[in-house]
Design a protein that fits this description.
Elements (H helix, E strand, L loop, with lengths): L7 E11 L3 E7 L13 E4 L2 E8 L3 E6 L1 H6 L10 E6 L19 E11 L2 E8 L13 E4 L2 E10 L4 E7 L1 H4 L12 E6 L1 H14 L6 H16 L1
Antiparallel strand pairs: 1-2, 1-6, 2-5, 3-4, 3-6, 4-5, 7-8, 7-12, 8-11, 9-10, 9-12, 10-11
């Protein structure tokens, strides 16, 4: 589990691809990120949860499966590429500054437009799998390359499907996503809460159970309305 608050930017120092087994990545990072590292630890690389298989004080290695390469933008990395990094949430002593992020990428999105709005930067993103748009709402959360960001605008019409996010100047210097241009891809993980709500609602209306919480919520709303 992660927060979507990127801790630092790392650099790909070695890349060993294999058509059969996937790719091995070695990443150079500031020393603080690995001070409490252990073999088998989970770490988010551009929003993708991977396992540390080896490390030194300044580098660590992960394996990326063929399936992960297909579903994310990690297959487009090259030596010297920069990536967002975040360690898994600790059991205690960690503030949740972003939102719950699993590190399970749902799809990739292409940058359709980049424009400046004062000191902020606006990115318009079009998802490869359009059905994820049902989980993207204005003022809701989305994780882009592992960074927890707020959606500022959504278009989910018959002809167009995209959303926009805004990066303040501080954030621009902390994540790799701010440097991406039109045509480049970002990893996308939608807010898991939307998925659970969808499942609960579907189960309720299809009579599959699991709608108790939804039924209670609707009941309270009806009662409040009738009191007015």
């Amino acid at each position: 589990m992660f927060t979507g608050i990127v801790e630092c930017i790392g650099t790909i120092s070695a890349l060993d691809p294999s058509p059969e087994t996937g790719t091995t990545l070695t990443i150079t990072t500031p020393t603080f990120l690995l001070e409490d590292a252990h073999l088998g630890d989970s770490i988010s690389i551009n929003g993708t949860c991977l396992t540390i298989t080896a490390f030194t004080p300044t580098t660590f290695t992960v394996g990326v499966s063929p399936e992960t390469l297909r579903r994310t933008n990690l297959g487009r990395l090259a030596p010297s590429s920069r990536v967002n990094l975040e360690r898994a949430v600790a059991a205690s002593g960690m503030r949740m500054g972003g939102h719950f992020v699993q590190g399970h990428v749902d799809t990739v999105a292409t940058v359709e437009e980049v424009r400046d709005d004062g000191e902020a930067r606006v990115l318009r993103l079009k998802p490869r799998e359009r059905d994820v748009l049902r989980y993207v709402v204005e003022k809701g959360y989305v994780a882009l390359d592992g960074a927890s960001l707020t959606v500022t605008k959504v278009e989910d019409g018959e002809e167009e499907g995209w959303w926009e996010i805004m990066l303040i100047s501080y954030t621009q210097g902390k994540i790799v996503t701010s440097g991406k241009g039109v045509g480049e891809e970002v990893n996308v993980e939608v807010d898991m809460v939307g998925k659970y709500v969808e499942k609960s609602v579907k189960g309720y209306f299809e009579g599959e159970g699991g709608g108790g919480m939804l039924e209670a919520m609707v009941g309270r709303m009806v009662e409040e309305r009738m009191r007015r």
